[in-house]
Amino acid sequence: MGLTILMVGMVNRELWGIGFGRQAALIFIGSVGLILNVHTLMPGIATLTGLAMGFYGLALSKRRPFRSAILLGVGLGLSFLSGGVIPVLSLVLSTLLLPAFFEIWRTRRYGLVLSLSLFVSLPFLMVWPVLLWWFQHDLFLTWVNSFHLFQTQNYIFYIKNLSWFAWPALPLAAWGLWKFKHKMWSQAKFQLPIIFFISTLIITASYAKTNQALLMPFLIPLSTIAAGSIETLRRGAASALNWFGIILFSTILFLIWLGWSAMLTGFPQKTYERMQFLAQTNESHFNIFILIIAILLTAIWIFSMVKVRITNRSCTTNWSVGLTVSWALLMALWLPWINHKKDFSPLFLSMEKVIQDKTCLTTHNINDAQIDLIDYYLNIKATREGDRSNCHYLLIYQLHKKDLPPMSENWKLVWNEKQPGDKNNYKLFYKE
After folding, report:
1. Domain residues for 220?
2. Percent of the chain with pLDDT over 70
3. Are residues 6 and 155 in the same domain?
4. How does DSSP classify residue 77?
5. pLDDT digit string, tens, across residues 243-285
């Protein structure tokens, strides 16, 4: 993730000049959706790094063509190996649309960058698929048939969720586009992020699966425009954002401390009961080392609120500090209870007792993370919404009473459990 942040900062330094890179990095890490996803173990983090490298490579194409080609080629390869075809198509479409719409990108140097980057990326793009086709031909065909591109249009899902996922990068970028509306179609520092955003939206929204993690690449172009436009923000708007962040994160920190102290002391009683319900346990955890870290984190937030006068840049800096401190304090004080609530091992291990054949398990409403956990705990390769004709087990997460896929009478319910604190049921059916 550190490499991703570095790439985002270097992009702004290249497009906007010295001094803007740090601001872009702060806006990027201060995005609400990023901090909710970046701390999970998933290949999407490496995909984000690859896209950031490719984006920086395109930004360098006018000044350093060879370095640009290496970054773009490696970015394409890293995106493919970690995220498959979707992120690669986003980068490729961006490289094609830039010269198609803007004359300043129709140069021999840009053509050289694309040619060299293709040469650099070929080992990444070819070796793994060829080996998969050679040694696991059936699995290769399954992988090819899993793309499901341009079968659906999920624009509403991604546009709607970007409104909170990309805060505060999205409103700051929107302000920048409005402020520079007469210049944005003639300058590369706007052309590149706009085209990258549009390309990513076209490809991502055309993918059959909807996933909040797929929103992370949008933060790269939004942070680029937002950081370059922050100085033009009106003083009143900057002050409002700063005070909103101070009030919001101070409240969050207070609630985190309140919940932690309630679990240790039982006071206040209502808070203690609510924490027990959320954590599904009454165990208390006290560690003096963790307590010292939590106190230092809180002191950092207090110091950041009082040490500087309000400026356009300080308002985004304070926001990023507040979000980071809030997350760190939450992990320091609440992590044992979060782990207890999110632990799926008892649920899936109880399901294992009724499964006699582990060769096939298809699922309905089960996300990719849970499928990975089934593989980890039970050593079963489950498929998401897969073909049930040759499979004897079907696992369903039932969101409501009528939320059941079409099934014949041969399917019998053999297991029915809930995750602690969850009102919905996990049901396992067996086909005789």
Report:
1. 2-232
2. 97
3. yes
4. H
5. 999 999 999 999 999 999 999 988 888 988 888 888 887 788 8
